[in-house]
What does this fold into?
Amino acid sequence: MGARAPAAARLKVTEYPPSWYAASAEPFGRRTPLDGPIEVDVVVVGGGYTGLSAALTAAEAGFSTVLIEARRIGWGASGRNGGQMIPGMRWPASDLLEKFGEDKARALVALGIEATGRVRSRIARHAIACDLRDGHFHAACKPAHLEAMRREVDLLDRLIGYRSARIVERADVPSIVATEAYHGGMFDASGGHIHPLNYAIGLARAAETAGVRIFEETPALAMDHGSPVLVTTPRGEIKARRGILACDAEVGALEPSLRRIMMPVINYNVATRPLSEGEARALIPSNASIAESRFVLNYYRLTADNRLIFGGGEKYSPRPPADIAAFVRPHLEKIFPQLRGVEIEHGWGGTIGVTMNRLPHFGRIGNSLFAHGYSGHGVLLTTLAGELMVEALRGNSNRFDLVADLPMRGFPGGALLRHPLYVAGMMWYALRDRL
Ligand SMILES: Cc1cc2nc3c(=O)[nH]c(=O)nc-3n(C[C@H](O)[C@H](O)[C@H](O)COP(=O)(O)OP(=O)(O)OC[C@H]3O[C@@H](n4cnc5c(N)ncnc54)[C@H](O)[C@@H]3O)c2cc1C
It folds into this structure.
């Protein structure tokens, strides 16, 4: 089907790009590239959370499984994200209810919440050392956002009896985070944060233990979704009964029919020097992960060694800023004036796979399944997505189809206009944030 060589094929990358995560990763020696033909039940393309979860679950179900990754395990968004475990889908339950009605909204909300449990259960079952901490705070940037959160807490309870989320009034924000920036927010005890690359590495180790063969530096150059599924790589062809496409932001390079669905958006993070225990506890007493309610948002948290990891700022050209620290710093210092001038020791960027409506996109092409486009909400949803794909391969696709049946439009504009139109849309939302 997709015959064009993807960017991954042209770019030989053998090391992780610099980031605090790469600097603090658990050892995971390079896995050799595929060399020669191979025949299996399931081939998984992409070694982020989605692909790793799918491969692990497939092997556990008894399928002979191979996973190929163009660079290193967790090289994409899974090894560079904010590490924030944000329960639910990108859409609040109120939007799901309004758009899809009560039954579907209830099922989608339940699925989004189940995703939290799936990650926690993988971490516990495989003893993954990824600094799991509890608690996520959705910070209200406007009074109206806090009122919407009040309705959301009630609705979550009414729809699925969800009680982990509670409202934090403005006066109580200092017990969560030391900033004047918020009008209150919603604290969810079942959310939290992790070291993202170490979670990916932990999943990879668990997958190998379950029998998955992992080949790094092995880009899929083309994928035919017939019977058998055929994946062409530089030094060997893979034949499989079923295929799983888990390339997220880059999926369009391998599968042109999906190109319009995905807008790759680059986002930047920094990590400060380790703060002292006292500074860190004073800054975020709850030790929660924190994400703002604005459309173009700041998100941040502490690491296990008390660094502040902070993501913020908007940049619409694919060219990285000359100095990532200088780019993110003003946003950090606006939220935390008390950190003015703090040493920033790491800065990095990563590509978020964003869909037009910000809902994940699941589906089928011939004998392959795909899941991608979590739109900045993939730390939790990806593990579940991998499991749902295997559930579907085993003959029960009800829950996979719940997401696959969601309406999904491509971004408007041809190859040349798609990005400028997206930028114009984002600027409009950024302007609304400031009003
Ligand atoms: C800076 C940043 C911050 C984020 N913060 C958060 C957050 O705090 N919370 C949250 O919930 N989400 C966050 N996200 C989103 C989240 O990280 C992603 O949704 C999630 O990691 C997607 O996982 P994935 O496995 O689907 O894709 P990826 O992790 O991107 O993995 C896809 C893999 O496929 C490989 N690949 C691509 N093409 C090929 C090919 N042809 N052949 C072989 N391999 C190929 C790539 O090398 C890559 O490793 C963030 C993302 C970024 C970039």
